[in-house]
Design goal:
The protein has about 350 residues and is an alpha/beta fold. The protein folds into two domains: about 5-240, Rossmann fold (3-Layer(aba) Sandwich); about 245-340, Helicase, Ruva Protein, domain 3 (Orthogonal Bundle), CATH 1.10.8.60. The chain has helices at about 50-55, 60-70, 75-95, 120-130, 145-150, 155-165, 190-205, 215-225, 225-230, 245-255, 265-275, 285-305, 315, 320-325, 335-340, and strands at about 5, 110, 140-145, 170-175, 210-215, 235-240, 260, 320. Strand 4 (about 170-175), helix 7 (about 190-205) and strand 5 (about 210-215) form a beta-alpha-beta unit.
């Protein structure tokens, strides 16, 4: 199901919002869009604006700093978001000087494998765009094929519109967007969902930012088949696989956020776990690390309960080597050893 991660919508969609003929449709008045850029009185030509403090006042620098602090790695993504934030801010300042500031196209593509932070960054971006006044709300709705595409004739349009209605005012995040296209099935309704999306991305770009996400190569192939979609997406951000060192750091960060830490002896075991896990099937970067930590906590709890006796603050906070070593990841020999063993 499509899910709203933030319920503050504050946006009532007019009945006719998806009507084909939009002539005279001025019911969409949420106090943003074109006039956003002109909020604040017009400044005289000789005036000056303290741009850094404006960045701060709007909460953009806070949101970006938070992103820097909470997310490990992703240098390229962080850099691009700073650039987008800066561009939008300068647009606002330009508008106050009466300079041309058309509403920029903010639809985006986040390309990368699972668990590389795409949803997390999209959530933060919704906050930034809201802080800047480009979106009336900071909520994010995630949707995948099942939420958008129906099973029979006449089923798809209402489903897609329902999701769009939920997302309106904020960000719609479409995970594995290419799954909307099923080339093997000519009676598939995915294309119908794409057509509706395209229409809304164009007509409601003042009220909705669409982020399409998924593997880079499959995304590229999807764009090849849907040039209309590609042309509506202005920003392409790459979310690369994390190097092992970053995954280890992500693990440390997640543990400390939950009030846990690795014992000295568990440190090298965890590092080994990460190296082995990333070579295994269904590895999903930071998400796999989060799952591993959840399981380690469970094993620690089981170990403490089984041992009985007294526990203290330190014993309930420490993850021991055995809490990690019990993972099935340690059952198989590491990839390098396996090939050596099966070699000639
Ligand atoms: N760079 C990062 N630093 C720390 N934690 C991260 C990072 N990227 C992702 N995570 C965590 O990993 C999990 C999966 O991230 P998510 O944004 O859902 O990935 P995706 O949408 O790319 O599949 C979340 O719990 C998130 O907090
Ligand atoms: Mg995701």
């Amino acid at each position: 199901m499509a899910s709203a991660t933030n319920s503050s919508r504050g946006f009532a969609m007019p009945r006719q919002w998806l009507a084909k003929d939009r002539a005279g449709d001025d019911a969409v008045s949420v106090g943003i869009a074109a006039d956003t850029c002109t909020t604040g009185s017009l400044l005289p030509p000789g005036a000056t604006v303290e741009i850094a403090s404006m960045f701060e006042e709007l909460g953009i620098s806070r949101a970006l700093d938070e992103l820097d602090a909470t997310l490990i790695g992703l240098t390229g993504v962080k850099q691009r978001l700073r650039e987008i934030g800066a561009l939008l801010l300068v647009d606002r300042v330009r508008a106050r000087f009466g300079l041309h500031a058309p509403r920029p196209n903010l639809h985006m593509c986040f390309a990368g494998p699972p668990g590389t932070g795409k949803t997390t960054v999209a959530t933060k971006m919704a906050e930034i765009l809201h802080a800047l006044g480009y979106l009336p709300s900071s909520h994010l709705v995630t949707a995948s094929r099942e939420d958008l595409v129906g099973q029979y004739v006449g089923h798809t349009a209402p489903k897609t519109k329902e999701v769009l209605k939920k997302a309106m005012g904020g960000v719609l995040f479409i995970d594995e967007a290419y799954s909307l296209h099923r080339p093997d099935n000519e009676r598939d309704y995915g294309q119908e969902a794409v057509e509706i999306l395209l229409q809304v991305m164009e007509e409601h770009r003042d009220h909705l930012v669409v982020v399409v996400a998924g593997y880079r190569d499959r995304m590229d192939a999807f764009f090849e088949l849907n040039p209309g979609l590609r042309s509506r997406i202005a920003h392409h951000l790459d979310f690369p696989e994390f190097p092992t060192a970053d995954l280890i750091e992500i693990g440390h960060r997640m543990l400390s956020e939950q009030g846990y830490e690795l014992s000295d002896a568990a440190e090298p075991v965890f590092a080994q776990y990460v190296s082995r896990r990333r070579e295994q099937p269904h590895f999903a970067n930071a998400r796999s690390i989060r799952n591993a930590i959840d399981r380690a906590r469970m094993r620690q709890a089981a170990r403490l309960v089984a041992a009985g006796g007294l526990v203290d603050r330190s014993s309930v906070s420490l993850i021991a080597p055995e809490d990690i070593l019990a993972s099935s990841v340690f059952e198989a020999p590491p990839a390098a050893t396996a090939s050596t063993l099966t070699g000639p």
